Predict the 3D structure of the following.
Amino acid sequence: MSSAWNPVTGTTAPIYVPASDSPKTVELGKSYFWLQIKAAQAYFADDSFFRQYFGFSLDKIKNIVVTSKITLDTAALMEAAHGLKHVRELKRGVPELLGLSPNLINLTPAIMTSASVSLEMLVDTENQLAKLAGMINSDSLFTPLSLSPGTLAVAKAISTLAQKTIQAFIPPNEQKPILQFEGNFNFAGGAAPEGYYVILGTRDASAPLPPPAAKLEVQGNALLIDGQPANRLSYVILELRTAPARTRAAGAGSPWEAKLSEAEREAQLVGEDPFADDDRRRTTWERVITLLREASILLSADPNYLPDEATHICRACYEQCKQALVNSQRAIEKQFAAPWVPDEAQSRAALHIPESIDLTAELEAYQRDTDWVEKHVAQLNVW
């Protein structure tokens, strides 16, 4: 992350503020992350910058327009995704909290080395974009990024529309930001701990950027600098979070999830049938293995899931299907001597599960991860 280009005015590099006593770190290839806007504020009072920069008074500005640009270092997104985030009336000398929609990047596997975010404040002197404020402020010209092909297609379309809207409604000489808040998150080498990343900005020399030693705190949606509210600065607070899993539940409606559900239904149905003979159970198990193999292929191609979790999900389903067939027979062992059970070695080989793996321990560890996600992430609407 670059350092601030001006010690008095301009914007700072992101300043890290921990959100907990023991923050986790986004691990490349091993965890998921999401990025939100915790809070944002605009404050402008000094007229001199605007006269020098644009040739007109601050009082002429009707609105501030917040634009976004997000880049993921992945082949799936070759260009930055642009968006229009907010239009808000500017009141000179009054701190304006910007009601920005929080999600910038939804829960995404950390398979890229970096993610970059830029939020820019443009001026709207002609009050043109106020006509579109309802549409812009409802995020019709912005979508949170993820690696889902459908989401990326929408993001690319919105990006084109957002750029064309700026070009159509803001004069060319005003299409330059009065403040630009930039954050680059490097996931290689454990360089991105979760928490808050505060970017400060000012155009008022009488309200300069704080010195590097200043203490920043985030309390709710408020920013404190050395214990005092940051009322005379513009700022953006980004919140980076990480999770150990995405969970199977987040894949509801996907083709691979349908295959897994079908395998579970068939195993359960036959497993609970006291009249199912060995041939029917064997045939059902073969069908289950086929469905699991098909699901594994589909899931391994889903860009929303890390390879390790894709493996855990399929193995958990395998174990559940096996138990549905085997355990249900124990209740009727008195009627049937030597009930049929799947060939464990053969079944594992078909699904590429090494015999040396302690499947029970592996799935218990994965269950702890999914339990944590269900408790701390599922309700946050970051999918």
In short: The first strand starts at residue 10 and ends at 11. The two ends are 27 Å apart (CA to CA). Helices lie at 48-53, 133-137, 149-169, 255-271, 278-300, 307-330, 344-350, 359-376.
